[in-house]
Design goal:
β1 and β2 form a beta hairpin. The chain is globular, with a radius of gyration of 17 Å. The chain is built from eight helices and four strands. The longest helix is centred in the middle third of the chain and has 28 residues. It has a four-stranded antiparallel sheet with strand order 1-2-4-3, with helices on one face. The protein has a single domain, classed as Alpha-Beta Complex (H-NOX domain). It is 60% helix and 11% strand. It is α+β, with helices and mostly antiparallel strands.
């Protein structure tokens, strides 16, 4: 199952990269980038330890794939800022598909916007961001708010070891904001673990109709 899921991500990343990278590279160069970053990932994955959950393990493998892609673009002379933005644009195309599926599933039994948002966030916290690989804590919130804190994030830990916390915060973490918008909500978060905070304080606020 893990192999199939990672294969899906690889195919989606290749498809998105062909579009996002086209203003910067020739088509043949993009193929080289996709081949070379995958070779870099094959080396990085040898260092990956098994996580307590399959979801957590998949997220670490995706972190290694992200790192390999980042290193490949940097090696081709792209700045950290440009590389980060290009990765963000590619990752959002994939994250958006995950979010849409989750949102559809969440709506099947939801009576209102708040319950649908609650279901959607629960689905993501069930897989792939599930405990004990991740550590979550629910917090009291108003009727139109879904609130919880992330106290442990293996992805943030992975990037920190490699000196890429800023890259993680500006890509993996920041993708939650357009996701919230797609889920008819506004995300308010004062900090993230990747950005140096002790926790990621998620407050998903239902948009007023």
């Amino acid at each position: 199952m893990r192999t199939l899921i990672l294969f899906w991500f690889r195919r989606q990343a290749a498809k998105a990269a062909m579009h996002v990278l086209s203003p910067y590279f020739e088509r043949s160069e993009i193929r080289d980038i996709l081949r070379n970053y995958w070779q870099r990932y094959q080396v990085l994955k040898l260092e990956i330890s098994q996580m307590p959950t399959m979801g957590g393990t998949i997220m670490i493998h995706l972190s290694a794939m992200s790192t390999a892609f980042y290193e490949e673009l940097i090696s081709r002379g792209k700045s950290k800022e440009v590389t980060t933005q290009l990765f963000y644009d590619i990752a959002w195309k994939i994250y958006k598909k995950m979010g849409r599926l989750c949102w559809r599933l969440a709506g099947w039994s939801s009576l209102n916007s708040h319950s649908k948002l609650l279901n959607a966030t629960k689905l993501f916290r069930t897989f792939p961001f599930n405990s004990p690989s991740y550590l979550w804590s629910d917090v009291p919130a108003n009727d139109n708010v879904v609130g919880f804190d992330c106290l442990k994030c293996p992805v943030a830990e992975y990037f920190k070891v490699r000196g890429l916390s800023d890259f993680c915060a500006k890509t993996w973490c920041d993708l939650d904001y357009p996701l919230a918008n797609m889920w008819d909500a506004e995300l308010k978060r004062t900090g993230s673990i990747a950005a140096g905070a002790k926790k990621c304080d998620f407050r998903w606020i239902v948009k007023k109709k």
